[in-house]
Amino acid sequence: MIFQLFLPLKVTTEKTLISMTPLDSIDKKLLHYLQEDAHLTTKELASKLNLTTTPVHERIKRLEKEGYITGYVALVNKLKVEKGLVGFCNVWLKEHSHPYLKKFEHEVLSLNEVIECYHIAGNFDYLLKVMVKDMAEYQHFIVNKLAKLDNIGNAQSSFVMTEIKHSTALPIA
pLDDT tens, 80-123? Predict the structure, then answer.
């Protein structure tokens, strides 16, 4: 189950990335406001930025085109959808050659409980963020899904007891 409604914009090409316009102070404020509330209308954003709607609309379109804005999401309350247990699972693979890494990455994409996956440096190879209803569902995930993947050497889990800070907004200087 995915916890964010992700509406991707068109894929940014390498050519588009090369021609990116540097962010000015208005762009940074605009990105800040949109990260706080993507439901703000162009008119509301224009008011906050002391601009008219046309330049705000044009800036948003440029930020989308250049890949600064990659999509818009609806954040869902994990408790309302019965996914209150958050676990972090460190995964160590037996084999580390390129084909084995890519195979694991491909397989983990099909695990709905995994909402984030990072290839990391350190004692483990991957860090998975897993969201499930309860410990029984987590055990089912580990035993019947993750452990069935061919190249798993070791997995170590940690669980969130209290969420102190959670944000999806990136700090923009």
Answer: 999 999 999 999 999 999 999 999 999 999 999 999 999 999 99
Whether this prediction's pTM lies above 0.85 is answered by no
The sign of the CA dihedral 170, 73, 16, 50 is negative
Which of 83, 80, 41, 81 is closest to 60 using CA atoms?
A: 41
Same domain, 92 and 68: no
The CATH number of the domain holding residue 16 is: 1.10.10.10
Alpha-carbon gap, residue 27 to 107, rounded angstroms: 38
In whole angstroms, what separates CA 30 from the centre of its chain? 20
Residues 155, 90 share a domain: yes
Domain that holds residue 109: 85-159
